[in-house]
Amino acid sequence: MASLEVRRSPPMSRRQLEVRSPRRDKYSVLLPTYNERENLPLIVWLLVKSFSESGINYEIIIIDDGSPDGTRDVAEQLEKIYGSDRILLKPREKKLGLGTAYIHGMKHATGNYIIIMDADLSHHPKFIPEFIRKQKEGNFDIVSGTRYKGNGGVYGWDLKRKIISDGVLLCCLGWSLLGSSDPPILASWDYSRGANFLTQILLRPGASDLTGSFRLYRKEVLEKLIEKCVSKGYVFQMEMIVRARQLNYTIGEVPISFVDRVYGESKLGGNEIVSFLKGLLTLFATT
């Protein structure tokens, strides 16, 4: 009787298994910081809690720009507490701009999705699972948190912050050019929606919140957008959405609550306001 020969396939390599098995998504959070010593432990704890409870694979990359208040020391302690596989400190020597901070962080990101957000507790991590669900439902390239849609909103802003988000200065500038020394628009302006109404008219971006900085991107999409963007400072976030529209990337939106910082001081000053106005006009003229 002839023996039955069983031919066994050689064991698959790890790489072959990865190719054959669906890849588990990983989310890399980029946290640019400058003087966020008090806020950083809280935002990291909230992020870890949200990801752990949702069973989401993640890493948090802290990009500190030479903070003089000891933010880097706090980040080093957090790295020890949570582990270097979850918290990665990638500091720089000085402030070099938001766009370059994202580029620096992405060099070290191992996730296939990137989440950008503020480290000052303005953005609550509880919305991140909603961002992820939204992205999966619509297969979006970008999911943006919006303060101006559904039950989204802004809480605790002072006038200076509202000016940047709502574009009041641009309207006042127009009145000044027309010779008015006392623009009446300040008395009745709807601070929560002004700028986005203005930018919708000028730029028609296809998104309700251009100046927000709480977003989820496919990693390759964010890399491409940063390559295309030329703006600095607060206009950078606006240009990202405008360029996304030009490149036909899809954008989903999730209503969020934006709360003003609890600790520390806003980085927003007169120079940023002027830059915002110049950047808005530049985008209008070139897109």
From TrEMBL:
A Gene Ontology BP annotation from the UniProt entry: response to oxygen levels
Record localization: Endoplasmic reticulum
E.C. designation(s): 2.4.1.83
Catalytically driven reaction(s): a di-trans,poly-cis-dolichyl phosphate + GDP-alpha-D-mannose = a di-trans,poly-cis-dolichyl beta-D-mannosyl phosphate + GDP
Any one Gene Ontology cellular component term annotated for this protein: dolichol-phosphate-mannose synthase complex
GO terms of molecular function: dolichyl-phosphate beta-D-mannosyltransferase activity
Domain Glycosyltransferase 2-like stretches: 28-225
Function recorded in the entry: Transfers mannose from GDP-mannose to dolichol monophosphate to form dolichol phosphate mannose (Dol-P-Man) which is the mannosyl donor in pathways leading to N-glycosylation, glycosyl phosphatidylinositol membrane anchoring, and O-mannosylation of proteins; catalytic subunit of the dolichol-phosphate mannose (DPM) synthase complex.
Subunit structure: Component of the dolichol-phosphate mannose (DPM) synthase complex.
Official protein name in the record: Dolichol-phosphate mannosyltransferase subunit 1
